[in-house]
Each structure stands twice: as C-alpha cells, then as structure tokens.
DNA sequence: CTGAAAGCGCTTACAG
DNA sequence: CTGAAAGCGCTTACAG
C-alpha cells in the first residue's frame, strides 16, 4: 500500500540490498538478518512493487493471451470453449501467483498492429495464442523473441520461438464417424462452419478416412455462421438431404442440429445419429445427451500454461509439439 | 521492443521532456516539434513502457476483476454468466486500450489476504468485484482507497469507495411468477441453490409477492450444488411434490430441471411450466426453449467497466447505485 | 515553447 | 555475509 524496500530496511536495520536479497533468495545471509527483514516486512505489510521490479529485471510476469475474433465480436460468449480453457490456465497460474494473464480479444476491426503495440507496452514475458493467425502476424510474434505457445494452430514449423499444442483432431473425426457406422447409420453427413479452417479440415480427414474404409459416400454440409445458428440451418439441410446421421465438428453446431431436428419430431439417437466434438458441459445438459469427442479442454489450458511457465523458467525447451489424445464419450444421441 | 524515450529524443533532436509532453499532450508545443517527435517515434517503433510510466505516475492502468469461487473451483466453466459479463467489460475496455483487466478467480482455499497482496503487488487502479464477499474483506477493499464497483452484491451502504450495480432481482422473480400464474399453473415451486444468497433471496421475494397476490401457497425447493446438477435433483423433487410449475433462480438450474423432467416424459410447457433467470444463450438452445428473465448480462459488464473508468477519469462520482431493468422473454417452456 | 535534474521502487554487479 | 552506487524508462515541477 505504501511501504517500500527502504522502509523495511530501516526497521530491520539493514540495507535495501539485503532486503532485496532476502525476498529473492539471492545471496546467502544469516538467519537473524533474514528474520529481521521478514518480520519488518510483515509489520509494515510490505509487498514488492511489480512495476519497479519489472522495470529493472525486464520481466513483467505478465502473460498475454490472444483469443481469435468471433463473428459478433463477443469472443467469450460465442463458445463455452474459452471458459474451460481459461479455467485450465488459471488452475496452473494460481499455483504460481507470480504470473498474471492479460487477455487480448482480437475482434476483426482491431488491427494486429495494435495488439503488437499492446504487448510492447505491457512488456509481456510470453504469449499463448489460441487459433489461427495471419502468417505475417506469426512472423512478428516470433520476432519478439519471447516464447509463444500456439494452441489449435496448424501452422507449419519454421519459427524458433513457438511451441504447439493440438488435439488429435483427425483421430477424433475418425472415432466419431466409426461410431456412427457401427451404430448402423449409412448416410452420414459432416456438418461444419467451413473446411477452410485447418482444424475443421483435420476433423474432416478423419471422417473421410472412416467413410472410405466402410465404402460409404461423403456428404459435406458447410454453413458459415456462429456455431449454434449454423447448426440450426445445417439441421434443416440434413433433413432435406435425407441423411440419417451427422458428425459435427463442434458441439455447439451439434446442439443447433439437434434443436432443428427435435423441432421436426425426429427422434435423435434412433432415427438420426448425432456426434459432436469438444465435450462441452452443454453436451451433457441437453436432452437427449450428445455423444461427442472429448478433447479435454481444461487439460489443454493447463498444459498450455504449464508449457509456457516451464519455458520461462528454463525448465523446458521451446519448439515442442504436443498432441492431446481424444476419446469418444457415448451418450444418447448416437 | 527496445526504443526508449531517449532514443526518440535523440532522433527528433529534442529533450526527453518534450517527447513525454508530446505523448501525453501535457504542455503546448510547436507543430514542428510535435511532428518531429511523432515521426521519430514511428521510425523507431517506440511504445511507452507502462512499467516505467506506472512507477512514476502511480497509475498502473490495471483493473482487478474479482470473481467468486465455485463449488468445483472452475469459476468460469461453472456458468456462462461469466463469459457474457466479461465480453461486456471488454467491449468497453477495447475502446480504451489503455486499461487492462486482470482476473482474480477466488477459489475457497485462496485466502482473501493473498488476493489483497496481489492487488498491492500489481497496484491496480480500480476493482470490479462480482458477487458476495465477507464483510471484513469489503472493509479492506474500501480501505485501499481506490474505486470499487460491486456487481450483484447486496451489502448495505456505509463504505466510501464503492459503487453498486444490480439487476432488479425482485421484480424478475415477480414477473416470472406472475407469468406462470397467468399461464394457469397453480402449484408453483421456487427452485434455487440456497436462499442464504442475497441475490436468490431477492428473487424469492418477488416470487412470494406474486403468489401472495394470487393467494397461492409457496413451495421452496433448495439444493446446494453446481447449478445444473442441483437442477437435476430439484427436478426429481418437483415431480415427487407434484408441483406443476417452477421458477428457477438461475437458467442453469432450470436447464437441469428441464432435463430431469424430459427424462420422465413430462411435456414441458404443457404439463409443466418452467421459467428461468438470466437469459443465457443456452436458454434459447435447449428444446423446448426456456422462458426466462433477461437481465442483460452483457450490458451489466459494460456498465460496470464504464462506471469504473468514468470514476478513474474523474468523470463520475463514487457511491452510485444502479439497478438494471429486467424483462421476461417468452419461449416454449411456459 | 523547451530542457536539466530529481525521483518513482526496485535490482545488480561490485567492493569490502 | 552485507552495503553504497548506479541505473531500469519514464514524468514532473521548475527554470529559462
């Protein structure tokens, strides 16, 4: 609130250097000195000022979290995915009170340049970036020289400061489609926003592979929109095309499809098989429950944070690529 | 990235004071000097370092956001409420690139003392606190001398640095219950986690008032749990008690109740009337759609942020109390 | 309209 | 094991 290292030094009867040393465990010092400093600090309610500390050490202990934009600008609201991944990150950061997260939601109008200036201004020690970004922006990120953890980004290697974290998207698509086939469905559509997104494309590849193995035909239904609303439209489409099952590349799309079908009186699980991807809370909350691919988003957030912290503390190397396993969670929809 | 005020001064051929003046619009200066400084800054890619700035001005341009704990520690995942309110806050902060948010999720084990030290360390300029807190912690918050905006907190007045933001919870409870009565339901339960929470209690008061006016009996069903799981149990309870309608104090509870009832073959909307509170996205995504009380959470977040910024800029006074209107959104569940 | 000097609260070689 | 001194990048009276 006000006490500085000088106040503590005065009361403890030592120099500021010693106070600093005690707090940072730098130089050895006698046990008495240590205790004198600590008790003086406690008495004064002393807390080191990060701004001052940051200025001299050039470490802000701040992590920048980059989140992609959404159609309607409300990144967080758009999908529960972000909640969960944030909770995962905080679960790790909490144990390391030292590091704080600063979120940069990047809406379409906000030029990436602004974001860059922002990171300069706050002097972030590291970055976690979720989703896909322009190549030139990635170049710039890498150019900062600080560690970056990329989550759900399928950019190829070649940068020195990036580490990658993905789910096994292809396998997820494969497992989902295999399950629908095993359940006896024969006309299985893929419902997605757009296959232009690398992540959707990976999931599509798994879908295609499973269909090929079974000798079935692929039916790709795309609809660019916010996930739920897109799903609503895709549900109508699925009925028109007379497919009897769908693998959706996101749970929220599946929830939209389900809603559209229930409205038409289709019995989900019997007449129509539906599998999502993510295992968001909502997939267990709708009725009938949604069968889906669990990608453990919470762990993803935790691992992203852990990876970055380890690199910052020189406990890990940059450049790793980590792929999280996925698993099918069977509920009532297929 | 590296350029300092000195580098800029050198290139522009002026003193650091002048550079600082130009950037902060402090003293008047000739147009030529201004341009020289600006172009030098641009050339060098200069961005003022917040840590240094903060150290001398004693303003961090950091806002601390306090979020309450959840049963399972995963604050954000627990309810989509937080997404939306965050989006609302960011919508305001984005226009004011200068301010950043730092989130403090407060799980049960994290002593409030730690949080306090944290705010000291980061030297936050202001605080937004969502939910209820211990009286002693509120005392301490007020004692910091920085502005605090309390959201969904029903603590009484008496502190000098607090401003309050609430929804019209009582009216919401009243509207919801009135609606169920008008729909012809006669045995209307209130489903909630606990009436010990002031916010639930306010909603309960509206419920009670409406019932009294109609001469109906109140039936309070409580279940302390995460909202959805609690709702599941409350749904069972509602069937046993043979009530024919329920007003739930949160949408997520209502979603749980709905799930439990659908599972028993109850036709929601016809056999059973259900009204929630919040108007989360999920209330429009489940089938049948959930009738609910809209409290415009996005606006709540935006207003909270705006209120704090205005106070920080001396454009507004502390101590205001703002109550947001609520409105009933009719869907299919009642 | 512009600049020299002091200082914000801390850490970091360096000397003792 | 401990301390005096310089310095991190900025702003702020104050003088001119």
UniProtKB/TrEMBL annotation, chains A, B:
SMART domains: HTH_LACI. Residues 3-57 form the HTH lacI-type domain. InterPro entries: HTH_LacI, LacI/GalR-like_sensor, Lambda_DNA-bd_dom_sf, Peripla_BP_I. GO terms for molecular function: DNA-binding transcription factor activity; transcription cis-regulatory region binding. PROSITE patterns: HTH_LACI_2 (PS50932). Keywords: DNA-binding, Transcription, Transcription regulation. PANTHER family: LACI-RELATED TRANSCRIPTIONAL REPRESSOR, XYLOSE OPERON REGULATORY PROTEIN. This is Transcriptional regulator, LacI family. The lineage of its organism: Bacteria, Candidatus Moduliflexota, Candidatus Moduliflexia, Candidatus Moduliflexales, Candidatus Moduliflexaceae.
């Amino acid at each position: 609130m006000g006490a500085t290292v000088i106040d503590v030094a005065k009361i403890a009867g030592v120099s500021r250097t010693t106070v600093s040393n005690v707090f940072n465990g730098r130089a050895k010092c006698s046990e008495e000195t240590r205790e004198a400093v600590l008790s003086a600090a406690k008495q004064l309610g002393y807390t080191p000022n990060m701004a001052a500390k940051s200025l001299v050490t050039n470490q802000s202990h701040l992590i920048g979290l980059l989140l992609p934009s959404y159609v309607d600008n409300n990144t967080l609201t758009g999908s529960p995915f972000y909640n969960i991944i944030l909770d995962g990150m905080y679960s790790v950061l909490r144990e390391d009170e030292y590091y704080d997260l600063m979120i940069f939601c990047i809406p379409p109008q906000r030029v990436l340049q602004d974001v860059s200036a922002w990171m300069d201004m706050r002097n972030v020690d590291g970055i976690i970036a979720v989703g896909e970004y322009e190549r030139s922006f990635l170049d710039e990120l890498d150019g900062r020289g600080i560690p970056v953890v990329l989550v759900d980004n399928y950019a190829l290697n070649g940068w020195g400061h990036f580490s990658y974290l993905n789910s096994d998207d292809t396998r997820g698509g494969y497992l989902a489609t295999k399950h629908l086939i095993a359940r006896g469905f024969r006309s299985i559509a893929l419902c997605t926003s757009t296959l232009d997104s690398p992540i959707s494309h990976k999931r599509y590849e798994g879908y295609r592979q499973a269909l090929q193995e079974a000798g079935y035909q692929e039916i790709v239904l795309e609809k660019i929109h916010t996930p739920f609303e897109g799903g609503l439209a895709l549900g109508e489409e699925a009925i028109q095309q007379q497919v009897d099952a769908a693998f959706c590349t996101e749970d929220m799309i599946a929830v939209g499809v389900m809603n559209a079908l229930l409205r038409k009186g289709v019995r989900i699980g019997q007449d129509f098989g539906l599998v999502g991807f993510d295992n968001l809370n909502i997939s267990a909350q709708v009725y009938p429950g949604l069968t889906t691919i669990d990608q453990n988003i919470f762990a993803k957030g935790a691992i992203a944070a852990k990876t970055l912290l380890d690199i910052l503390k020189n406990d890990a190397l940059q450049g790793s690529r980590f792929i999280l396993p996925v698993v099918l969670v069977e509920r009532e929809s297929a």
